[in-house]
Amino acid sequence: MPDLKQMRVLVSATSYGKSDPGLIRDLESQVGQVIYNQTGKPLKSADLAKMVEGVDGFIAGVDVIDRAALEHADRLKVIARYGVGVDNVDLAYARERGIVVTNTPGANSVSVAEMSIALMLDLARPIPDAIAATRQGNWPRSNGWTLEGKTVGLLGFGAIGRAAAVRLRAFDCRVLAYDPYPDRAFADKVGVELAGMDAILPECDFVSLHLPLLPETRGLVNAGFLAKMKAGSYLVNTARGELVNDADLADAIRSRHLAGAGLDVFAVEPPPADNPLLSLPQVIVTPHMSAHTDGATNRMGWMALENCLAVLRGGKPTHPVA
């Protein structure tokens, strides 16, 4: 069996072990050296290239893990993604180099689903504006929507979409869902109606995105998509910023075809100051915080750690991607 005490592991995920120090103790007790990302933010390709030399295992955040960085990985055996998405990883080159890539499916599903619903609630009831006004000494009479009886469309019915559906049904929402490979048994069990995307859009008061970033989903939410949405409805995105054409969404809100949007993700993060959505009061924006909860980070941490150590020991990880 390989000697883990002769191995070095790079941890770039900035929240690793923050709410469960046992993750740090466990990793440091098993391998020879652990190198941490001290920048407090995801690593760019050039930064990663400097850190990955001589590293055997890599517990990775949302860094840019491209060919240029991986060319410097002279000993790397595993990239254990601390999360689900692998669109920032050059999977083809990793495969060519014999580097195993893993992820942590389902670890943050509940947290992201809860964030999606939090954004819906903030859009339905102008809570941020009411807080600001009250602190300024005002006492506004603010009207809003109940979620009860509203129709919510979930585009993507994987682990996060299913978690959102269960919670939305508890709000007594009518829930419609689209997925190219839907779990029909689960949908029937919780009372979700499966339908095509074009059938869902005009029916829903809220449309929530839970699709992966793929060539066919990049820029999916464009002018044509938005025109099909119900007048006065809201868009929520906790999936990937690249799914949305920001300029088209801003136009749809300015024209009042859409009432607003709740966005936790952007194609460029942080979004530049001239992003048209930032200046619209009908848009709630948050800094990609959906998965930043104790429950999600702990589950992601333990799953990533187990995947990483399994490969370093010469075994098979539980959640291989490539």
TrEMBL record:
* InterPro entries hit by this protein: D-isomer_2_OHA_DH_cat_dom, D-isomer_DH_CS, D-isomer_DH_NAD-bd, NAD(P)-bd_dom_sf
* Gene3D superfamilies, per the entry: NAD(P)-binding Rossmann-like Domain
> What is a single Pfam family found in this protein's UniProt entry?
2-Hacid_dh_C
Q: Which domain of life is it from?
A: Bacteria
Give the PROSITE patterns listed for this entry: D_2_HYDROXYACID_DH_2, D_2_HYDROXYACID_DH_3
The chain positions of domain D-isomer specific 2-hydroxyacid dehydrogenase catalytic read: 26-321
GO molecular function, one example? oxidoreductase activity, acting on the CH-OH group of donors, NAD or NADP as acceptor
Domain D-isomer specific 2-hydroxyacid dehydrogenase NAD-binding: residue ranges: 117-290
Q: Which residues form the signal peptide?
A: none
Q: Keyword set for this entry?
A: NAD, Oxidoreductase
Membership in a protein family: Belongs to the D-isomer specific 2-hydroxyacid dehydrogenase family.
What name is this protein filed under? Phosphoglycerate dehydrogenase
What organism does the record attribute this protein to?
Longilinea arvoryzae
The record lists the lineage as: Bacteria, Bacillati, Chloroflexota, Anaerolineae, Anaerolineales
